[in-house]
Amino acid sequence: MNVAKFNYRELFKQKTAEDFLLISALLVQIVALAIWGTFEELVLFQMVSLHMTFLYYILSRNNSFIQGRFGSLFLIDAWRGFWIIPVKNFRFRKNILKVQLPDQHLKMKITPALVLISIGTFWVAIGVVLFAVNQLQAVSENFKLLTTNFTDLWGVFFSKIHWMDSIIDFMVYLLFSLPLGAYIYGLIFGPLIRKAGKKANYQAIQAKINRNRLLPLFSSYIVIGSLCFIYTLFLVISFLDLQSLFQVHTISPQNASHTAVSGFWQLVRVALLNFATLAVCYFFSKVAVWNKKAGKILLTILFGYTLAFALLASWKLFGIYIALYGITPLRLISGWFITVLIFWTMLTIIRIHKLFLAIRYGIFYIIITITILPYLFAMYLN
């Protein structure tokens, strides 16, 4: 099947918010890399962000999102874009090498394969001609005098090339480019060639998820209720300890670092534990907890504590550590992560009581802020 036959204009006519956001973020990230390159402490974030943004953009433009947009299955979308779609469509890469042979009624069409064959034929012809000339020069002196300048010219040309290094580099690039090219071709053009006829079906995937929803409702109540009880007990017992955190003037310089660092990541992990609990309830509970009145109350309390822990961690970071010791790369990354955590927690609390696309907006926030992060590095740390 020829990719050129597709009506791209008709296919891409409708653009979504994901399309605009992802292509904008991709361009802004590329500009940051072009200006400053990679930052040592941020290189992993930059590379992962760039590749994931590109991956999601291709999925969005090809209309390959399971839900048609960012949603609760965004991690499954990422796995499909990273592995399933490109590997499944790996074989389509060979289409670009197909040459349409001419006959009496058809003119030859210029294709990439034809160009490669022409270039290869040119160099083969030069090689065999040089070999023949070299052999015939030993037979005839007149022929040797006539062709000496020609062979000397090519001899100088080839002597300037470091053959072994060039061949090794070429073979390395060739070995990596073939599977990488097939991977990218399968990711970008595979859904187009299939005409989205085998697009992942949201209902089918939900049916698979429903088969795993075996936990009764009371299991969710027990787990969430237990966490709420522990958090309440923690706040009651630790009230005096927590109160001292807000009296920065009473914290000595010697103890400020210890006060700011101790418990910071523990609070973050507890907040992430609550999100993990919610995800488990979504994927494995028979009944959606947030659809029940008691469930809404428990989840509101749970994520109220999550917000409190995230704000407490942010105070440790911004109010004590950065305020007293200044900003560093690690503190800037930690600050970004805390803002993401607070934003997602607030979206979750609102989503418990009102139906809207909370996960979509949460992912938008991550894309926007992680795109801005290199610019903050350059502004404050470079």
TrEMBL record:
Assigned keywords, A-Z: Membrane, Transmembrane, Transmembrane helix
Sequence intervals crossing the membrane: 20-36, 42-59, 110-133, 170-193, 214-240, 260-285, 297-324, 330-350, 362-381
Keyword Transport in annotation: no
InterPro entries: DUF4153
Domain of life of the source: Bacteria
Keyword Secreted appears in the UniProt entry: no
Protein name stated in the entry: Putative membrane protein
Species assigned in the record: Streptococcus parauberis NCFD 2020
